[in-house]
Fold this sequence. Notes:
Tumour Suppressor Smad4; 6 helices; 2 domains; Alpha-Beta Plaits; 5-stranded mixed sheet; alpha+beta
Amino acid sequence: MAADETRVTKISTITVGKAANRDCCLVQIHGPELGKKYVIEDVEYTIGRDEGNHIVVDLDNVSRRHARILVRQGRMFVEDLGSTNGTYLNDQEVRQAQPLRSGDLIKVGGSIFKFLDGDNIETQYHETIYTLTIADGLTGVSNKRYFLEYLEREMGRSHRYHRALSLMIFDIDHFKKINDVHGHLAGDHVLRELAQSVKRLVRREQCFARYGGEEFALVMPEDGPEKARLFAEKIRKLIEERTFMFEDKEIPVTISIGVADMTADMTEPTQFIKVSDANLYRAKKAGRNRVVG
């Protein structure tokens, strides 16, 4: 088998206590095999970089034998196998075998799996796949595809009804340094925590998305220039004052924000994004941790 292929081993022998009878599976929602479903058909199911595992994750931050799913007294558990970078269940490090519930997220190196268990597993799976088409697997907010579609719709609506539309683009200052000093798992943790912190401030009619890497976008219909800038400053201050902790270490985080307002000559999302991006660049050139627009 080629090194870049994911190997899934299915064991068909029927034994007492088979996990297959429980209709359990893992769905990769972040990583090299995005959207792939792995049916758990044995009482022990291993994940790692070696091809001998049931699920092979070909990433350099995944150990050769990283983690396993196992059955104990009819319940499913996840256990770390002494991996270098650890295994995380719903963002908490797994230090001993932890029970699993349907919908739990298991992080193995740079990949994330969603555990599904129940009678309607196919329905759950297809719902998960649909979510992957509109949501970012790592942060849980909208993805770039959904953001671009939303922005195009709102620009058309703004032109038709002559209503204000503002766009905010921001990214994390010196994010590469966070990865270099604290590791990529810490960087992923910061991205998730930041996204969820901002998401709590976003109204239903707005669109908050991960635009790419450490960059995020927020579309604000009908707020007008002054409200948009006040909201941007509120978000900047929130992140500056928030404490980000990973493995008992505090990570200082700030963001730079570029804000733009739609004008009559803007007909394409790329035109709107270009102005907001230019203001983001100005914010960084002016010293970072600030709003420009």
